[in-house]
Each structure stands twice: as C-alpha cells, then as structure tokens.
Amino acid sequence: MRKTTRKFLAVTAGAASIALLATACSSDSSGDTSSPTSGSTGGASSDAKVTLKVATFNEFGYADLYKEYQQLHPNVTIVDDKADTSDNARAAVQSSIASNTVKDDIVAADLDWMPELIASSSFFADLGSDSVKDRWPDWKTAQATDPDGKLIGYGTDSGPEAVCYRADLFKKAGLPTDREEVAKLIGDSWDSYFAAGKKFMDANTGAAWFDSIGALSQAMINQQEAPFEDPSTDEITVTNADSPAKAVYDKLTSPEVLAQSAHLGQWSDDWNNAFKGDKWATQICPPWMTQIIAGNAPDVKGWDVADVLPGGASNWGGSYLLVPSGGKNVDAAKQLADWLTAPEQAAKVFVKYGNFPSQTAATKDASVTGKTDAYFNNAPTGQIFANRFAPISKQPYRGSHYFPINSALGDAYTRVDVDKTDNAADSWKKFLAAVKDLG
Amino acid sequence: MTSTQTSPEAEPTAGDERQRQTRRVGFTQTLGRWDVKVSPYLYISPFFILFLVTGLFPLLYTAYVSVFKWDLLLGKGDFVGFENFSTVLQAPVFWKAVRNTVSIFLLSSVPQVILALVIAALLDANLRARTFWRMGVLVPYVVAPVAVGVIFSRMFADQSGIINQVLQNIGLNPIGWHSEVLPSHLAIATMVNFRWTGYNALIFLAAMQAIPRDLYEAALIDGANRFRQFFSVTIPMLRPTIIFVIITSTIGGLQIFDEPRMFDQYGRGGADQQYLTLTNYVYQLGWTNRNFGRAAAVAWLLFVLILVIGIVNYLITRRISSDKSAVSKKRKKVRA
Prior knowledge:
The structure holds two protein chains of two kinds. Chain A is an alpha/beta fold. Chain A is built from 20 helices and eight strands. Chain B is built from 15 helices and two strands. In chain B, a hairpin with a 3-residue loop joins strand 1 and strand 2. The N terminus and C terminus of chain B are likely disordered. Chains A and B meet through helix 3, helix 12, helix 19 and helix 20 of A and loops of B.
C-alpha cells in the first residue's frame, strides 16, 4: 500500500514537472510569436473577459484601486505580480526585454531604470493619448519619452525634496526650531546649508549635521542639467576636468563639509539603526523618505519638515507604469494604466500610503494639500511637498550609462566618508578608472 | 520423382528454418550484447543529455558571447575578438576580484575541511542521542544563504554590530568589517563556514563509518592512541572522500556569490571592492553595466581559474597519504 502511494506520488510529480516544462515553453513561444500589432485584438471588445497582470515592487498602494476597477469593469480581472525587491523587479523587466517575452500586461519601473528602457522603447506600447495630455509636468514625461517623441510610461509618484530636521537637536544647539525659521536658516543655497551646519556643529551637541556626503551628492546631482553625460551625444562627460559633478565632489569632500558628516552610508544597517539615536540633525527628504524615517525610529520625537531645499527645487525618485506592446491585452492594459495614474486615484494613494503624486492636478487636490503628519510634529506635509513640487522645472539628463556611473560615484564618496580607505584625490582617480572601464 | 521433387523443396525450407533459427538466435544474442554494452550508457544518458543542454551549451555559448560586444537589452553587437578579455585583464577591479575570491576561498575552504574532519571524528565516537547531534550539525545548511547573509551582516555591522560591541566591551578596538579587506573576507568566510562545515562533516562521517573497525582494533593492539589512530588509520582510509570534499568545496568556494552580495546594502562588494568576488563581478558587469560580452569573458576566466586550482588541489591531495597511494600504484601494476 505504502509502495503504491509512493509510486503514485513519483508518477504525479514527474507528470507535474513535465506539465510545468510544457507550460513554460508554451508561454515563451506565445510571447515570441505575437507581434506588436496582434496585441490589440484581445481588448477590442469591451465585454470580453480579460485578465491583466500588473508587475510592481515595494508599495504602489494599488490594492483598493484594483478592487474598485474590477467593480467598474466586471469583465476585467487584475492579478497583482509584486516582486520582492526593486532589484528583482528591474532584473525581471530586463530579462523579459532581452528574451523578447511578455509576462505582465503592465510593468512598473523606477525612474532610474528609464534610460535603459527607453533604449528599447520598441518593446513598449505608445501610451500617448489625449486623456493623459498635460496630466504631468514636462520634466516627468520627458523621462518616459523616447527620442522620437513616443511616450512609453505613465508617471505614478514623485519625490519633491524638502529638508527633514530634528527640532529637539536644533533646540539643544540653540538654533531656531520653528518650521519657517529653520527654512530661513538653511536657506536656498548649499553654502547657507553648510553655514547653518557649522553653527550646529560649533554647539557640540554630539550629533552631526547630516548622515553622509553620498546622500547629499544624490540631492546635488539631481539639480544638475547633465551631470554625467552629454544630452545630445550620450557621450560620458563626467570624467572631464570641468564636469559639474567634480565641482560637487570637491565641495563635499572638503574638510569643512566632511566635519559635519555622521559618516554613515545611506541604507546600511548602521544607518538604519542610527535613527534610533541622536546621530544627525538634518536629512534631505523626499516624501518617501519621511516613511523610512518614521519606520526606522518610531519612538523618536522631534522630527519635523522644513519647506526648503538648498540649491533649488528638485525631484528624487518616482516611478512609471509601462505596457509591453507584445502583450495579449494591450488596449485593456493601457486603459487600466491610464485609470490607475489618473489624478483622482493618485490622490487616494497619497492619502492612504503617502506616495506623493506626480500628476499636476493631484498635487493641488484638497485631500493632498490638507494632509498632515502626526509623526513629524503635525507638519502639513501635503502642502509642503506640493510647494516643493510646483517649482521643479527639470530633471538631470540620464543617458545609457547613468546607473553604473551613479553607483561608481556613490562608491567614491563612501571610500572617503564612510570607509575612509582613500583620500579625496585617490578616490576620484579610482572613480575615473571605474568609469573608463564602462566604455 | 515426387520424393526427389519434394525433397529439394523441403530441404531448402528446412535449411531456411534452420538458418532463420540460427539467425534469430544470433539477433537476440546481438541484442543481448547491445543490452549489456549499450544500456548502461542509456541509463546514465539522461544526466549527460541534461548536462549537454544545461552545462555544455551555456559554456560554449558564453565563449561565443565573450568575443562580441553584447548589451543585455540590445543584444549582439560587433565582433571584437579577444578585446573583452584584454580589457578585463587590464582592469584593476578584475585583479581585486581575483584576490578576494582566492582569499575568501582559502579562508573558508581550509578551516572548513579541517573543522569538518574534527567534527566528524567526534560524531563518530560513542555519543548519547547520536542522531540528534548528527542532524544538529546539518541545521545551518538548511538556513537559506540569504537569511544567513542578513543575520551575519547585522552581527558584523561596523558600528551597531554585536561583534564590535563585544570587542569594545573587552577593551579592544572595533574592526572595520566592511571597510577593511581582510576582516571583510573573514566575516564572509565565517558565513560560508557556518553553512557548509556541518554538511561536509556528515560526508566525512559517512565515510568514517565505512572504515572496518578491525583496523582500529589492530591499531589499538599495536599501542596506537586516539590521535595516532586518527592520523594513521582514519585519514588514509578517508583519502577518496577528502579529495571529493576538497574538490567540491573548491568549486563552491571559488563561486561564492550570495554571502558577499548580502553583506552590505548595495551588494556591489564594497566601495573599494574590498569583498567583490568574481561571480559578483560577473553579475555587476552583466546586469548593472549591461555589458554581457565582458561578463562572459570574466565567466570564462573564472572557469579557467577553477580548473587550474582544481588540478593543483588534486595533485596536492593525491599526496595526502603516501602509503595509500603506494598501495594503489601497486594494485595498478598488478592489474596491468
């Protein structure tokens, strides 16, 4: 009896694995053969049953919206295909492009991946339509538009940066603690930010002014027009002696600025743990960073948000929804992506999950601007980030080498600031060598 | 007439039948011969067919990719010959990765094999609740490598890690587990050893149990103590197992990927490539830099490195017990 069940198990297991292989093969081949034009047939009739798979990562806050959409469109079933990390989500998109197979009807992508996706823009459907015209500011759509003017992504959230600060540490240092006064103290330029830092450090509270120069570099690079590459030729320019990134590097690795650093590399275990103590007083803060601070130090009282950013308004992060053109239900997927990124829906996501919208109308919505955050001393975060969002006029040019160059630059800062393995000049030399190896 | 008429007719038929019969016997015999000669190969063929598809084909295809400019997303570009190899061989990062790989391999494999031998010898002794202890050493192996990476990277955190706190409590200086080269290798080797020592110990234990007990009795009568028994009976008898374990742990040790990748928040092997291993470098070239041609070149260089170290290993381990190899040489002579 036992033997027969075992045999039976073995046989079914074998059969199942063969079936799995077969389905894996068949889904591959269907993806290979379906041409971009054949994709639109499935969604043509609005009553036909349609299943749409949406690939996301982290938290897009769409669970309620899926339910709502399925009620509005009873023929549509939405399957959530969430990746465990954003890195894995990026790898999944890359491998689906590399093998020219379509697994998901809608694919979410981070701003940082857009340059490489635009390089293969023929893989994605043209999303341009009248209903999304002027939904986003130009800087947001520019990152999802290919050189021929084809829009391949609908913007979801955005990251207008403000400055989060520890009011309790400011008080200890004898500095103002009120939001508006702090904004004045920090000022509109990086020089005034570091001057305020000098005052703070002179008070000897034991805390540093910021976490690491690498974190500041990200904010300062976001304010450049073309930090690493020439927008017209895609040629790497960061290695030139007069590159703006080098000027930023020299400023940040100067002894005065390094003295204000807590030497904690962003996202490291030490960094995450340090939020529980009094390690540094200010943090460059897009809306999503407020969630990270609150998550890392739920018991720390004293964080607040100032409506200011040294160096001028700029954006850090944000995502897009893309529709692969080889999918079976391209039209239905487009419709869903359009609906999910409409201002009304984006406002709902912000109120519940805190992902700040990138849709111009949504940032002016009363439910968005009226939101306050109890953790940040009841700061009107909705209004502050809307104020930080409005003046953003540009995003840095991200060419095909943006991602690896930015990683190498981050390493260069870490070597000087966190690991202290190199001095500024040697670390820059290593950075130049790493960039040269990319070519 | 009739008889003569029938007989020539009958004769050939009978002969035919006889012939057919002999032929039939001959065919079954050849079938049988084929069965004996061919079926063993048929039985092992699934492995080799699978290997051909999943092992040899990728190996050759990687060689093909390595001589082209090849973008992850855009696919094949121009033929560049050995340019990918020459750029990689000139890049300081590659040599750092070789240094790290060899160093982490030595720091993990050597203590691992020695420790596993000792643990196996202890488990081979008469213990109460034997199965419990034997299964116990396998527990770390069950833990997912990524989980091990997360746990150990917290323990080894430079400022908030428990290990540096203990060091500071007993009056020592904290160690830069992430910023310095050798400490980072030690930390990663610790993770690898944590995972694999028990596994190797069980393999050694299984081989130890197969050693005839009368050898120990004879050694005991000759007055050998436990240590002498271990070095003169156990180790020589374990020679094939030791070679097996050393070769598998060499291959594994040179391909360490998860542990250094989980060791910090970026998984790029440190800001100064303090613990970037060759497999991490392959991943970084292929997926971060999207340069498949160069990644393929590094993968091939790694393959060559493993082959070279594997051969060196084999030559060294062959001499682990000279008596034993002398015996096998004699046997070979007899056979010849």
